[in-house]
Amino acid sequence: MDLLRSDFDPALILQQKRRIKRELLQKPGLIPKKVALMSGSTIGEIKNILELFLLANGIRPEFYEGGYSLFFENLVFDDGSLKAFAPDFIYIHTSQRNLKLWPEAEDGAAACEEKLNAEYARFEQAARAALGFGCPVVLNNFDLPLYRVMGNREGVDVHGRVRFVRRLNEKLAALAEATPNLYINDLAYLQAVYGMDRFSDPTAWYAYKYAVSLECLPYLCQSVANIIKSLLGKNKKALALDLDNTLWGGVIGDDGAEGIVMGNETPAGMAYAEFQGYLKALGKLGILLNVCSKNEESIARTGFERADSVLKADDFLCFKANWDPKHLNIAAMAKEINILPESFVFVDDNPAEREIVRRELPMVTVPELSCPEEYIAAIDRAGWFEVTTLSADDKKRAEMYKQNAQRAALEQSFGNYDDYLKSLDMVCEIGAFDAPHAERITQLINKTNQFNLTTRRYTAAEVEGLLDNDEYITQYGRLVDKFGDNGLVTAMIGHKQGDVLEMDLWIMSCRTFKRRLEHAMFDELVRRAAAAGVKAIVGHYYPTAKNLLVKDFYATIGFVKTAEDEAGNCTFEFTGFEGYQPQCGVMEIKRV
Question: What is the CA angle 447-227-117, rounded to 5?
Fold first, then answer.
């Protein structure tokens, strides 16, 4: 939907929201989710616009609306309606308008501190009550007050409202940092970006009790939707980057490496340098950086050899500098990296190139760019790479994909595939779900699409509920080889029902396709299931546009198909415990 792209016009969204909704509801594969909106102020239009941004991210929401300004009462003293709704997400929409115990000039320091702690305790109690419903909770921090009685001293004096709000925000940040499943929607940052007078227009409050102006509601809703879609694994994974006039000024083929503009000698050079620094920081978070440029590769690489180039050639996973159409290069990158084209954001200063990629690869995200000073904002404020969790595996993702490229190169030198796999010296660590790995397991479950047999998602609370639960058999798998550690890349959940094990989940990262890891995991599952008295394992396959790769997977490892409906949903059964022979013989198994 063009109206919801990164440079959206909030007025047009408000005007055309019904048409936008109708069009977005036609998108295939929408994931239904229940979202509870808890009110600190009017939320009617927030529901309408938040729905659009969720739909644009492939999520079809069903909403529960709390009573006006009753966020605390609805959460702490639920009458049963919220529990019956069974939300997948709770958003607590509060603001500084909901603060009651402001410090007064006559208060002593102890009284000011007491008010601060009392206000914090109220919002902490509401947040913890929300977490009790077993789903992720999104909580606003506080926007700054619109006036300063003491002027600049408001930010330093213990009686100042500005300082009071900033201290509250720091306490909420510490709470979220220490509390799984609690996420902060940074209302204070949004107010700063879009301007206090514009964002917190008092007219909207006095007339309609909206804590955020109607004009800025789309920015608020986009921010909340970014958190939710990130938790559901719908972030982008990779950037395809043009070079000339995108990462540096000028055309390197004409100007040479010394003639292009970058570094700190000119205003334009500083803008390109800062943009490169921003991209490098994304790379350190695990975002895959790739070059997609019409250039001679040998000449293009010299730009990154300059001492003042923040990015270096080895910061990129794929380096496609050639004269092929850019949409073909992006498609080739996706195939090489083994991710879907929709995981890419294409960044190019040339509007013609942007339009071609939009037309030929409509699933690729293509932001509008203007001058280099605005490149960062065009990417950053769209929230495509919103971080809700950051694991050690995330930080190593680019290195893991580079190691995969080394494995692919090695494979070409072998005539026998099993010989190649054995040459990798693989070690597979398999264990039951445990607390140290729970965060990564949750992240993997909610991000994995291609090898995902049932497409079920689990919250952090649900994963934690499986730890040490005798009714379930759970397994995670970690794969290490001579090129490096692939990280925790696969997980299984089986629910015991008498002597039958129902497979609720089986997922595996695309990074480890065709490595026989799935066979190693099944060998261990059979061993553990037999020890638990299981006589049959029942597996399910529910088709999506992304998991067709594993439609017949169960049949390849010894299951028999027992049912299939018109939608392609299949049921398989395994009973071959007696005399079972392990199917994976190409790696060492380490049980933990």
Answer: 130
